[in-house]
């Protein structure tokens, strides 16, 4: 209970990394000082780099 500091939810970090969502000021501030959350963002960036580009016009 209480106001224990929690990590930024992974889904929010994903949205931030993929550019589809913004972090709240609180979450952004947390990210600046939290190595664990930063490493998660690094992993997400790595995943995004490996994803093939979305190309709707491409038909097999
Ligand atoms: Zn954190």
Summed over residues and divided by their number, the pLDDT gives a mean of: 89
Largest sheet: none
Poorly predicted sequence stretches spanning 5 or more consecutive residues? none
Q: With helices defined by DSSP (H or I, 4 residues minimum), what is the helix count?
A: 3
The radius of gyration over CA amounts to: 15 Å
Any overview of this molecule?
This protein has 60 residues and is mostly helical. The chain has a domain at 15-50. Helix content is 57%, strand content 0%. It contains three helices and no strands. It has helices at 10-18, 25-33, 35-50. Helix 1 packs across helix 3. The longest helix has 16 residues, at 35-50. It is elongated and about 50 Å long. The protein starts with 9 loop residues before the first helix and ends in a 10-residue tail after the last helix. The model has no long low-confidence stretch (mean pLDDT 89). Zinc ion (ZN) binds at residues 7-8, 30, 34, 36-37. Zinc ion binds at residues 7-8, 30, 34, 36-37.
Annotation keywords:
60 residues; mainly alpha; 0% strand; binds zinc ion
Please summarize what this structure is.
With 60 residues, this protein is an all-alpha fold.
């Amino acid at each position: 209970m209480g106001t224990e500091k929690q990590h930024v939810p992974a889904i929010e970090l994903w949205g931030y990394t993929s550019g589809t969502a913004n972090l709240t000021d609180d979450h952004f501030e947390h990210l600046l000082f939290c190595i664990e959350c930063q490493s998660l963002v690094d992993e997400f960036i790595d995943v995004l780099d490996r994803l093939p580009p979305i190309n709707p016009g491409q038909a097999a």
